[in-house]
Amino acid sequence: MKNIKIRINDLNFFYKKKPVLKGLKGEVEEKAITTIIGPSGVGKTTFLMVLNRLCESIPDCSVEGKVEIKLDGRYIDINSLPLTTLRKKVGIVFQVPNPLPMSIFKNIAFPLKLSGVKDREYIKEKVEQALKDAFLWDEVKARLNDSALELSGGQQQRLCIARAMIMQPEVLLLDEPTSSLDMEAALKITELLKSLKEKCTLIVVSHYTSLTRKISDNVLTLKDGCLEISENSKIVEGLGTVN
Predict the structure, then answer these.
(1) How confident is the model at residue 230 (pLDDT cuts 50, 70, 90)?
(2) Would you give the DSSP letter of residue 128?
(3) Which of 88, 155, 183, 196 is surrounded by the fewest CB atoms within 10 Å?
(4) Pick the CATH number of 4-242 from 3.40.30.10, 3.40.1710.10, 3.40.50.720, 3.40.50.300
(5) What strands lie across the sheet with 90-93, from one edge to the other?
(6) Which of 229, 223, 240, 173 is nearest to 42 (CA)?
(7) Predicted TM-score (pTM) above 0.85
(8) How far is CA 210 from CA 35, 37, 128, 146, 207, in A?
(9) Closest to 177 (Cα-Cα) out of 195, 145, 154
(10) Which pairing describes strands 61-71 and 74-77: parallel, antiparallel, or unpaired?
């Protein structure tokens, strides 16, 4: 019996009244890696944006259906949660690393300060732990005051993951986190993701099929308007179609 973190029921997404996601139904396993693969333009990123309501910032779009996340032992409709609460519980990391133009330390601490945390020692401890969780601490501990923009592409991506993890999300969404990296850096990211599933539920959009299949507990394929269950997908089922 698998623990389910997210339940999706008849999810539809429209952009300018045109359906992008249509009739999606399914479940996402808790503290596991669920990977969504498929060609560009079939709605993979849109699906992630629905899960933490980033889609609300897009003009002329609308969402129908229900997405529920299990918090404190009960399922809650994500639309009933305050947006700030949802974003703390459901973090997101984008395809292209987006470090802020400030120091490594300030990049990681930024979400805490934005949420009103002022205790310097607490912030320092959390920054260190987040960097350790992201396999980055040993590489940057001697230069925390240097600009994050000086880091390599792979390091910047791990920094963005650390910045998302500092809020201790229960779900982490990752939109093609290895696509802009060379193979060595991509392998580091996939090893990182394997370790993170001990702390939270991961949903990963990826086009690196061979890499992601090795670490995924569940794999879904978006292709030609259909969301198919791949052979090693254990949980998500009964999903509908996308256009």
Answers:
(1) low
(2) H
(3) 183
(4) 3.40.50.300
(5) 74-77, 61-71, 4-15, 18-29, 241-242, 226-229, 218-223, 33-37, 201-205, 171-175, 90-93
(6) 223
(7) yes
(8) 12, 11, 32, 35, 9
(9) 154
(10) antiparallel
